[in-house]
Amino acid sequence: MSRATAQSCIDVLDRGDIPVLDITGGAPEMNPQFRWLVEQARRLGRHVIDRCNLTILLAPHYEDLPEFLARHKVEIVASLPCYSAANTDRQRGDGVFEKSIAALRRLNDVGYGKPETGLNLTLVYNPIGPSLPPAQEGLEADYRRELSARYGIVFTSLFTITNMPISRFLDDLVQSGKYRQYMETLIAAFNPTTATGVMCRTMLSVGWDGRLYDCDFNQMLDLELAAPLPRHIRDFDKQAISDRGIVTGPHCYGCTAGSGSGCQGAIVP
Q1: Residues sharing a CB contact under 8 Å with residue 256, sequence separation 6 or more, in sequence order
Q2: Weakest mean pLDDT among 7-11, 50-54, 84-88, 155-159
Q3: 61: burial class by Cβ within 10 Å (0-12, 13-18, 19+)?
Q4: Neighbours of 120 (CB within 10 A)
């Protein structure tokens, strides 16, 4: 994302009442605009979320990130597929769990995950294979118990997120011959009550080049906002976008299956 596109995002925040800037990507902290975006959004009094992959906190030249994020009261949402090394490394790669634990300890050291600091640290679970996640509340209790007992780590909350049949996971499903089975699982578990809380109803996804999407998943599929809606953040029109129809596809069953799934975890108990 260029400074010009980042500036357009800040301009939208400045003239509107949008309360949250949620920054994501493979490792959004590596973008040269990341710290500027955080500083500008916080100057405007907006809540900022960093979707962090944890291991970036240990990379050269990024060692001061925990202090920077804490200083600006940034909420951290970080993926940790399991509280066991074997399961995490199976999904994310060898050695990722050990690095993630080290990064979580760094975050705890600056106050993240501790109720008295107000620095929220949310972990994210998603299933390893083609299945729905378990109940969020029960799994959060398991994470809290195991991470505390094994590693002395504390956190604020846990989100469970369903694997979307797109991108790399879609390729894995097709190659293993499990795509049809997984789609049937999602469709059979369709829960209409989740539709009131799906993330595309209250968010707008801005791509690196400023193009607009209903959600991150549509962005990954290159499904832009429906015409004739604004297609770029510089053309933002809050009224038009607030009243828009959502572009949908088969992947949307992932957000509406079981307890539902979105950027804030399960939608219904």
Answers
A1: 190, 191, 192, 194, 195, 198
A2: 84-88
A3: exposed
A4: 18
User: Which pLDDT score is estimated for 82?
Assistant: 85
Whether 75 and 47 have beta carbons less than 8 Å apart is answered as yes
Q: What is the pLDDT of residue 151?
A: 96
Q: Count Cα neighbours of 235 within 13 Å in the Cβ-side half-sphere.
A: 11
Residue at a domain's end among 125, 160, 195: 160
15-39 pLDDT per residue, tens: 989 999 999 988 999 999 999 999 9
Please state, in angstroms and as integers, the Cα–Cα distance from residue 100 to each residue in 45, 62, 138, 144, 225, following that order: 30, 15, 22, 15, 35
My answer on whether 128 and 142 are in the same domain is: yes
Q: Can you state the angle between helices 34-43 and 3-15, rounded to 10 degrees?
A: 10
Tally of domains within the chain: 2
Digit-coded pLDDT (tens) for 203-254: 999 999 999 999 999 999 999 999 999 999 999 999 999 999 999 999 999 9
Q: Does residue 132 share a domain with residue 63?
A: yes
Residue type, 62: Y
State which residues form the domain around 184: 163-269
Q: Are residues 170 and 265 in the same domain?
A: yes
